[in-house]
Structures are given as C-alpha cells and as structure tokens.
Amino acid sequence: MKNDYKKQIHVFKIVKVVSEWAIVPFLFFFRDCLYVCRSTNENRKFANDIDKASESSKSHRA
User: Fold this and answer.
1) Whole-number Å distance between alpha carbons of 50 and 13
2) φ and ψ at 45, to 5 degrees?
3) How many whole angstroms separate alpha carbon 34 and alpha carbon 41?
C-alpha cells in the first residue's frame, strides 16, 4: 500500500514537471495566436477605413 502511494507521488512529480515544460511553448503559441488575431483585426479595420475614405471621396467627386 505504501509503495503504491510512493509510485503515485513519483508519477505526479513527472506529470508536474512535464506540464510545466509543456506550458511554456503553449504560452508562446497562444501569444502568437493573439498577436496574429489582433493584427488581422487591425488590418481589417484599416481596410474598412480605406473603403470608407474611398467611398466618401467618390461621393465628394460626384
């Protein structure tokens, strides 16, 4: 019974270390995804602003 308990602690330590190592690249990946999403949203907004500006300039010319 006691030996089984030690084995569980050992497995838990391994899982803890692995999860700590695995979370770092995941955080970088998550940050990159957020950055990409944010930049695409800004680009979309920028494109919409250009469209609005071109429409308003067309309406001024007409």
Assistant:
1) 55
2) -60, -45
3) 10
**Greatest CA span in the chain, whole angstroms?**
88
Q: Determine the Cα–Cα distance for residues 1 and 29; give it in Å rounded to an integer.
A: 42
DSSP 13-28: HHHHHHHHHHHHHHHH
> Does residue 62 surpass a pLDDT of 60?
no
**Cα–Cα distance between 20 and 32 in angstroms, integer?**
19
Distance CA 30, CA 24 (A): 10
pTM of the shown model: 0.37
